[in-house]
Amino acid sequence: MDAIKPLPQVTSFSASVFSFLDDRFRDAGDLSHSPGLVAELRTEISELDQRLAGLNRQLESGLASYASFSDRVGGLFFEVNAKLAHLSSSSSTCVPRSPSDGGNEETTTEHVAGEELPSLAKEVAQVESVRAYVETALKLDTLVGDIEDAVMSSMNKNLRTSRSSGFEEVRLHAIKTLKTTEEILNSVARRHPRWARLVSAVDHRVDRALAMMRPQAISDYRALLSSLGWPPQISTLTSASPDSKSEDVHNPLFTMEGSLKSQYCGNFHALCSLQGLQLQRKSRQLGSHKGENVLFHQPLWAIEELVNPLTVASQKHFTKWSEKPEFIFELVFKITKDYVDSMDELLQPLVDEAKLAGYSCREEWVSAMVSSLSLYLVKEIFPIYVGQLSEATESDLRSEAKVSWLHLIDLMISFDKRVQSLVSQSGILSLQEDGNLLRISSLSVFCDRPDWLDLWAEIELDERLVKFKAEIDYDRNWTVKVQDELISTSNVYRPPIISSIFLQHLSSIIERSKSVPAIYLRARFLRLAAAPTIQKFLDCVLLRCQEAEGLTALTENNDLVKVSNSINAGHYIESVLEEWSEDVFFLEMGTGQHDPQEIPGVENFTEPSEGIFGDEFEKLEKFRLEWINKLSVVVLRGFDARTRDYIKNRKQWQEKKDKEWTVSRTLVGALDYLQGKTSIIEENLNKADFTAMWRSLASEIDRLFFNSILMANVKFSNDGVERFKGDMEVLYGVFRAWCVRPEGFFPKLSEGLTLLKMEEKQVKDGLSRGAKWLRENGVRYLSETEAKKVAKSRVFS
């Protein structure tokens, strides 16, 4: 029988032993559990002995492997030493015997240096490379072994249930060893690309260890959150106002103290360190494919674990609010706002300590909350609204479904603006970058469902066109001019009120598109909603012009006013679109970031200079130029009809001039008509387009009179020249109100008169000199043939 061993002295107990005994034996009643404790300790000792035996076997295997490598390296060094000794002996025996043998000695030395040294240098380099490889392999093997041991220890049930500080120390040691291993692998991958198999083998073992370590770390983190009382009761959040932070909101992250707080911070830091390590590994593994692979932003694991239980708890309330989505958005925003400060004050320092670069806890918290909301919208809310639209057959039901859809979009836009304001308060995130906006925008649901975006654009377009149609049918909107001193372009183009109303609808669509978080989605939305709206406006102004032309062929003054107002409206919208095309918001849509899924029936623009509304701009410009020309043609047609008698009276140019009349009687009516029509157009048409119109009209009148009178073989006497000169002066006078030298816009008539007023000898001598003489006398628009024909029409007395 074994002798009973005496108990050790109490003074020899360590602090950990005292702590262990105090936890197990709190009172006399706990002594009855001592047999079970002894059995548990013996089991744990047995397991530790087995692990120790395994470690000893692993150590023996490592030593044997090292011995094998050592023997190989020793053999290589022995060979090198032998060859070096042989080289030394060869050099020493090459002593010069006589001057006649000097050439043989030099030849021998050169032979040895030329053939032996390069091969020796190569072998030495090989030995050094093998030595470095062996040392690196052994070091990595040792580190990976420590990692695997630490991972197995951290998963030991007895070690975990004891809740001792040793468990956390083991995990931190594993993470530290992982970082050291990654640093070595990174150096090897960069300096020794031929050691790819070694790196791959180590990566395989490390990945296997991480595959066990990460789930266990997350599981421990979840259990710790549960013990902290996370998530808090949602009912306490719904009672407070969503627009102001509640002072009595329970935040377990702020109330934890002592060892519990230290334990939570340790767990959070460990998760962040693991994630940072994984990002480093992926960056290294994809380092050879930069430009082909892009590391997408990975959500922060620790923050996701905070949000997930909140999401589950919130969805119990969401199911009751499927017909009141505004409550869903309010609840999510309130939760996000109430806990965002704890992200900055408590968790951000831990992320910085873990050296997880590029991460903001505030941003990650908001992003995770928005992502959970977006996921719920995709799964539960949007399918209901899409179903209502597809199932609605009656116009009233479909109208209600559209209103509900637009209301949901309004809620999403408002929610996005509020949560983005929470992020922008940190001053870290740039909201101008598409990637950042996608992560904190509920409208990012359209990235995966562009068909829903198309449906939204269709509804938005229908809604705007219905409202705009009522404004179009009100005639007063087409006659009253926009009077806004703040808008300089309104004074230039003198647009009717309808153009301002249209811009309000168009601007509303564009403002809503700015909430869409991706450039190509904004462009898609604008092409589907805004571009057809512009086309509808163009159709309206074109229809009004065509109606005026069809009724009276634009002979009535009211029709001229109607067309002038339509041109003003179109030119004003054209100028606004041109101004918008220089805005950054529209310019970035022309940088090549286009929709990966082209829209059937909608052509995509290819040149940045064209802009998103390039086609519509060109159509408006074409409409304007076409109808300016029609106004000119209409006035010319009426003027031509009234000058037929004047043109046909060929004898008047040989008759004496009537001193009582400064202008021919048959021309008075035509000039009065010309002045009346141009005055009406001037009064209603904007200045730029009116200038283009009267210049075109002057050019046509110049061509009409020149061809019908000066080129019609008419004979001019001296009095006839004076009569024609006086008539033309009066004609020029009609246009003098808009320019200083109107005769410059009647080049052929002016130069024809110049030739008619010349003396007979001057004309004959000059024409014989040809085109050069014509240029010297200011005749540039008439050809030599035309000039001779005008000269022949002159009759000298």
From TrEMBL:
| PROSITE patterns in UniProt | RINT1_TIP20
Which Gene3D superfamilies is this protein grouped with?
Dsl1p vesicle tethering complex, Tip20p subunit, domain D
- Region annotation Disordered: residue ranges? 90-116
The protein's matches in InterPro entries, at most eight in alphabetical order, are given as: EXOC6PINT-1/Sec15/Tip20_C_dom2 (IPR042044), RINT1_Tip20 (IPR007528)
State the PANTHER family in the record.
RAD50-INTERACTING PROTEIN 1 RINT-1 (PTHR13520), RINT1-LIKE PROTEIN MAG2 (PTHR13520:SF1)
Q: What is the official name of this protein in its record?
A: RINT1-like protein MAG2
Gene symbol of the encoding locus: LOC104790976
